[in-house]
Amino acid sequence: MPTKHFKAVIPAAGLGTRFLPATKAMPKEMLPVVDKPAIQYVVEEAAAAGIEDVLIITGRNKHNIANHFDSVPELEVKLAEKGDLDRLERVQASSNLADIHVVRQGDPKGLGHAVLRAQRHVDDHPFVVMLGDDLIDERDPLITTMMAEHERTGAAIIALMEVDPDHIHMYGCAAVEPTESGDVVRVTGLVEKPAREDAPSNLAVIGRYVLGESVFGVLERTKPGKGGEIQLTDALQVLAADPEGPGVYGVIFRGRRYDTGDRVDYIKAIVQLAADRADLGPELRPWFKEFAATL
């Protein structure tokens, strides 16, 4: 386990327009994945890595997120009186995961701007940025490896995953050089959503970053880029190009990842996670096979 006191930052200020009308009044981060909101999986991942301090960057009409991680005494009392201790434990679990803090982003000026809003809270601590669109299976730890690599090198660390070259246009893409460790590469450049023929590799940037306080100074100088927003990718590009700095490294993730970024992948994530559950899988898996045979 890494020795530094890391904090976690979870940007959650997006409008979730791809899931309208479901997200008209409910934050997309609170959409259920089986029986927990998506953002709880992310906080659980941070807690499992030993992170006790989590800052969530929210926007307007996102009060439900803070409420979810707060205690609900009247509900807990009712469950205790009924002797429903299993549900009581599950309700209380989200309140006991970590110290949860919330700050509003204000103007939605992009991921880089959301990370910059964490500066006062993070101070001089190293921190992990965790995007809620990417759920990492608890059986395949990722951020502990990234945190350890940050401690070893002092560099910014990004998570990378090999994807089909035909799909690289959907992601940020990294140009890399090998290191002595096969699954750790030095990042020499980043390209946002390149065409297949322009992509420097098939290594896609997925939603986990480990950063130090130096990123804030770069973000403060970063002008709006793609989409008129302040892009974290642009700041990482500056760090990667700095010959006097520790640079940017990538950890190639080969485990299970669930993309909840669009409707089809969101449904796939629910199916995959439910099928693997000990309490749901035995009943669901045979039904999946029967249903698939009718298609």
From TrEMBL:
Keywords, comma-separated and alphabetical: Nucleotidyltransferase, Transferase
Start and end residues of each Nucleotidyl transferase domain: 7-273
Enzyme class: transferase
Enzyme Commission number: 2.7.7.9
Pfam families, per the entry: NTP_transferase
Family under the similarity heading: Belongs to the UDPGP type 2 family.
UniProt protein name: UTP--glucose-1-phosphate uridylyltransferase
